[in-house]
Amino acid sequence: MAGAKIIDGKAVAAQVRERVRAEVAELSAQRGVTPGLATVLVGDDPASHIYVRGKLKACAEAGMTSFHRELPATVTQAELADVLGGLNSDDAVHGILLQLPVPAQIDADAMTALIHPLKDVDGLTPINSGLLMKGRPGLVPCTPQGVMELLQVSGTELSGAEAVVVGRSDLVGRPLAALLLAANATVTSCHSRTRDLATVCRRADVLVAAVGVPRLITADMVREGATVIDVGMNREESGLVGDVDFQPVAARAGAITPVPGGVGPMTIAMLLANTVAAARRSSDAHGVAAAVR
């Protein structure tokens, strides 16, 4: 491995969490508001249970209140909609997260759309997605927001840079492309039908892999000195591996995120940041309403 700078997601996530803790304390002291995050878990997916436990633990460490709703795999859409509606109406809840995936009888998009946009801390409702595409303020999906934080902390220049995003999911690829465009990068979105992917990737000053294919990005696809962000998390017998063939790519890249320890820790950190932002916005709105009355 040559001189690629390793972008330490654990360290950056710790900084974000510390910042969030300070903001939570400030909101509580100055406005009497404690940010509250509601997690809704449907079914028995083992990975989802692990992820939600991590989110609840992170809430407690940040000084937030957590509201957890656990529903059986047999729940109907109507029953889930009732739960989400109740959380929408609860003033103590500032953020709502529906843990994905959900069982087959549940339309995940339809249920996500029921979450109030001001409480949509995953940034996945049609309104927040639309605001992002328009370049207007809103709640932004956590993983793409975490990628932008890593790029900023690593000192990567985005204005005028050529950025290539491999993957076009609603959760990562599409919103990240919009964020990079808003930062004045020239953005190319690649996917399963992209012709000659290697040639497109080699143009990139910033290359982001987010497709869920182990070691898809090889050294011959990376420009010398590029910043490489690996969003992939693939489980193999040897452990977690990313979408990037790490060691050979690190020998060519200028900076790179590892897996694990790169983008992964940023997702929960940015979820906490989104919840604080939602709580602050709710407090501001209530303050304006009280002043008008």
Beta strand %:
15-25%
Strand order of the largest sheet: 1-11-8-7-5-6
The largest sheet, given as strand count, sense and whether it forms a barrel, is: 6 strands, parallel
The CATH topology of the largest domain is what?
Rossmann fold
Strand element count: 11
> How far apart, in Å, are the first and last alpha carbons?
64 Å
CATH architecture of the largest domain: 3-Layer(aba) Sandwich
What is the number of helical segments per DSSP (H or I, 4+ residues)?
10
CATH superfamily membership of the largest domain? NAD(P)-binding Rossmann-like Domain
> Helicity range of the residues?
40-55%
Radius of gyration: 20 Å
Task: Write the H/E string, N to C.
Answer: EHEHEHEHHHEHEHEEEEHEH
Oligomer: single chain
Q: Tell me, what's the shape?
A: globular
The average pLDDT is: 94
Count of the separate structural domains? 2
